[in-house]
Every structure is written in structure tokens, then in C-alpha cells.
Amino acid sequence: MTLQQLRYVVTIAEIGTISKAAEELFVSQPSLTKALKELEKEMQITIFDRTNKGIHVSREGEIFLGYARQVLEQAALIEEKYKHKSGGKQEFCISTQHYSFAVNAFVDLIKEYGSENYDFSLRETQTYEIIDDVARMKSEIGILYLNEFNASVLEKIMKANDLKFTELFVARPHIFICDKNPLAQKDQVTMEDLKDYPYLSFEQGEHNSFYYSEEMFSTEVRSKNIRVRDRATLFNLLIGLNGYTISSGVIDKELNGENIIAVPLAEEGEMHIGYVTHKKTKPSRLGAIYLEALKRHAQ
């Protein structure tokens, strides 16, 4: 196995076809195909599934590519340090539920990294995808919460995928509402107070389940429900419809606007918010920088 072979398979995975990857790498398609087959034979795995419609990364290939990217990053760092030249474009990805502190930490990472050559991804996505992204090593870090209701299910899934959950902080349940909402003047609200207002939550797609819900008290029966995919839409609806969502109470006015506020929810419960990593890997340099920033913003 060589660094060149690892670069080849990572490029194929990113571009999606061997022919276009060969053009990108300035090698012939037969040479690239041969290098791929030799690597798969040596490692005794199938990195790409071949079909009539092209190639797709296999399940075991996703895991292999996660390791390959880490090796290439370390090689780039060695070149940068000892050859006094740029080690190439750095790649880094995290997957997270919709938390402003995760975004702020991402901003800090980019500022601290300080390179002009990088390719970073911040995926605000569904709970199942967060776990799957880290399991497949598409993302180095995932951010989500556990509580008494979902912990047994999510911990079982994480254990089956060799994942580790590390707690950052514990939050009491709050609601996010517009500052013009009649409930904004209350010191705390109850479920009874909320019954006439539209309830906003993040949809969980084909893996929709109460256990995957990003909001606490997901089993509560409500007469007005709206599900959205992104944070901007949710906040616009909070303002336009006097709706509410249930959250950790951690809010950033610069990101979310001055007119969105958090009000404590009277119901009992705790959100154990933390990050998910793969047990078989160690944090990369970029991952370590991000985790330090995450801890600062989660305080």
C-alpha cells in the first residue's frame, strides 16, 4: 500500500467515476484501475461496488477511506513541516444537530487553521445521519444529545458501530420563541401554556422516530405541528407564526438574531449534549482544534 494508491481511491470516491478521476490525477484509466485492484487485493476488501450504472463506495470501503484520509493528512503535515511547503488541501468534516455553539467552534477552527487551502464541511443534519457519518468516517466528529428517553436506543447503535459519546454539558429544557410572542414575558412556561401555539421541529427523514428527535418531549401530542429541515426556516417560522421549538436554551444572538429568545420550560428533564467519535481513531490535528473550540463555546 502506498500514499499514491490512497490518493487514488480518495479521489475516485470524491469524483464518483474512474474515468474522471484519471483525468484529475493525470494518469491513464487502465493504470488507475490496475492500482485500485492491486490495493483491494492487498487489503483483501472491496472498496468500490461495481454496477452497470457505475461504481459506489462499499460499506467497508467507507471505513477504509476514513483511515486513508487520516493517513494522507498526516503525510501532508510531515511534508509541510520538513519540506517547508504546503502539504496540500486539508479536509475536515463534522456532523451535528442544530446547535449554534457547534457553528461558532467551526468558525474558530477556520480562523486558527489559517490556511488558504482547505475543504471543510459542516453538516447540520438528522440524528441517524450523524451517527452513520461518524461510523462510516465521513465525519470525524458528530454532535448530538442524550436523555433518559433516547439514551438506551442511541447508545446501543453507537456501541454496535464502535462509537464513543463524550459529554460536553447538561442543559435544562427551554423553548425558543420570538420576543414578540405573548409567552416571552414569562419566567418559565408549561406544556399547557404552549398548547395553542404551532410546534416546530426538525424532520428526521426516513429514519423518523421519537428516539431520533432533536427535541425533547417528542411523544407529546400536539394539535399544530410543523417540521422543517434547516435552522433558518425554523427561526423564520418562530417569528412569522408565533411558533415555538424545544431546545437546550443555548442561543447565539449574532447567529440567530436579536428577536429569538430562550425561555425555561417547567417540565423536568435534562439534555446531555456531547460529541461522538470513532473508537478506532484518534483525533486529527484539525479534530483536536475543533474539540477545544467546542468545549470553549459549550461552557
TrEMBL record:
Family according to the record: Belongs to the LysR transcriptional regulatory family.
Keyword terms, alphabetized: DNA-binding, Transcription, Transcription regulation
Gene: cysL
Organism: Anaerostipes hadrus
Short name of any one Pfam family annotated for the protein: LysR_substrate
Highest taxon in the source lineage: Bacteria
All residue ranges annotated as the HTH lysR-type domain in the record: 1-58
InterPro entries: LysR_HTH_N, LysR_subst-bd, WH-like_DNA-bd_sf, WH_DNA-bd_sf
Protein name as annotated: CysJI operon transcriptional activator
GO CC annotations, alphabetized: protein-DNA complex
Molecular-function GO term, any one: DNA-binding transcription factor activity
